[in-house]
Amino acid sequence: MTVQFGLFTLDTDRRLLQRNEVDVHLTPKAFDLLVLMIQEAPRVLRKAELHERLWPGTFVSDATLVGLIKEIRRQLDDRDATSRLVRTAFGVGYAFCGTVERTGLPLGPRTPDNGGESWWIVAGGRNIPLSEGEHLIGRDPASTVCLNVPGVSRRHARIVIDRQGASIEDLESKNGTTVRDQMVAGPSPLHDGDCIQVGPILVVCHVSASGPSTATLTGRVAQPRQSRER
């Protein structure tokens, strides 16, 4: 999944940002934040939503989010106040407002419009979308599904989404992972409605042709003529 904006190319599969084919370093959370803003562009993402999607179930101060925004602006050389790539909606949140051109598969979970299905899990009442690739579950703040509670290991389990579907694997956690009341050892396939016990926490896996509701990319996001919005 690759997009271009200005001199930059963002490759989500390789977690790589380049400027004129030269690597640009972003910390993992700054990279995740940039991808999230581009996915939702030009919508303003409220601070509360960003906290929930970047650090689910974990308290993180606004100063941490501001620090990530500063890091992204610095690495994108986003200094022209008249043509910002990252816009601050004061007192509300942030939005990506650059012109984006897709050059690979669409970002985010696959849907019928881009040749697949949408996967997500429900944890603590939150819908957490799962795009193609690997998603860590655990107490590690960098986890896609951060469960900062006793009984959950720092790197507890991982879910992998690919063209064939989804699977989960326990990462030698202390209290183990079960799916459909069966202990997980090696990769185990996931299906819609599967209950996953991660230590003391129960999460539910879902897959759908439509998936949970998401914002449509509009505004300044340029699309190839033959592509379709998700």
Question: Explain this structure to me?
Answer:
This protein is α+β, with helices and mostly antiparallel strands and 230 residues long. It is 15% helix and 35% strand. It is built from 3 helices and 20 strands. It has helices at residues 28-40, 47-54, 62-75, and strands spanning 2-5, 8-11, 16-19, 22-24, 45-46, 86-89, 93-96, 100-102, 118-123, 126-130, 133-138, 145-146, 157-162, 165-170, 177-179, 182-183, 188-189, 195-198, 201-208, 221-222. The protein has a 6-stranded mixed sheet with strand order 4-3-2-1-8-20, with helices on one face. A 6-stranded antiparallel sheet has the order 10-9-19-18-15-16, with no helix packed on it. Strand 9 and strand 10 (126-130) form a beta hairpin. Helix 1 packs across helix 3. The radius of gyration is 18 Å and the shape is globular. The protein starts with a strand and ends in an 8-residue tail after the last strand. Mean pLDDT is 82; it is low at 105-115 and 211-230.
Quick take:
The protein has helices spanning 28-40, 47-54, 62-75; strands at residues 2-5, 8-11, 16-19, 22-24, 45-46, 86-89, 93-96, 100-102, 118-123, 126-130, 133-138, 145-146, 157-162, 165-170, 177-179, 182-183, 188-189, 195-198, 201-208, 221-222. It has 230 residues and is α+β, with helices and mostly antiparallel strands. α1 (28-40) crosses α3 (62-75).
The total count of helices amounts to 3
Strand content: 25-35%
- Terminal CA distance reads 14 Å
Order of helices and strands: EEEEHEHHEEEEEEEEEEEEEEE
Topology, number of strands: 20
Question: Keywords for this structure?
Answer:
six-stranded mixed sheet, 3 helices, single chain, six-stranded antiparallel sheet, 230 residues, alpha+beta
